[in-house]
Amino acid sequence: EQEQRKQIDENATLNLKRVRRKPIEDWESEEAQSPYYITDFQETKTTWHPVGL
Fold first, then answer.
1. What integer pLDDT is reported at residue 6 of this predicted model?
2. What is the distance between the alpha carbons of residues 16 and 6, in angstroms, rounded to a whole number?
3. What is the reported pLDDT for 1?
4. Taken in order 29, 9, 39, 23, is the CA torsion positive or negative?
5. 13-43 residues labelled b (16+ CB within 10 A) or e (exposed)
6. HSE of 7 in the Cβ direction (CA atoms, 13 Å)?
7. Mind giving me the DSSP string for 5-49?
8. What does the pLDDT read at residue 45?
9. Three-state DSSP class for residue 4
10. Beta carbons of 49 and 35 less than 8 angstroms apart
11. C-beta pairs of 1-7 under 8 Å, 24+ apart in sequence
12. What are 4-50's pLDDT values in tens digits?
């Protein structure tokens, strides 16, 4: 996991993306699967959300 984090940080510099990590224990939890989980990390002008049929 440390190597993956290092690689993510390094790759983020290639296109000037900001990388922030929100601590979470269980990525399969309901909280982690919610689109609202990324609310603190998104910009309004680039917000994307899935739309149901």
1. 92
2. 15
3. 85
4. positive
5. eeeeeeeeeeeeeeeeeeeeeeeeeeeeeee
6. 4
7. HHHHHHHHTTTT--------S-TTSHHHHSGGGGGGG--GGG---
8. 67
9. helix
10. yes
11. none
12. 989 988 887 787 666 677 787 888 888 888 888 777 777 766 566 67
Q: Which residue has the tokens 């290639």?
A: 14
Name the token pair of 17.
């993306």
- The values of phi and psi at residue 36, to 5°, are -75, -10
| CA-wise closest residue to 37 among 28, 17, 8 | 28
pTM given for the model: 0.34
From residue 51, alpha-carbon distances to 4, 17, 35 in Å are: 31, 25, 11
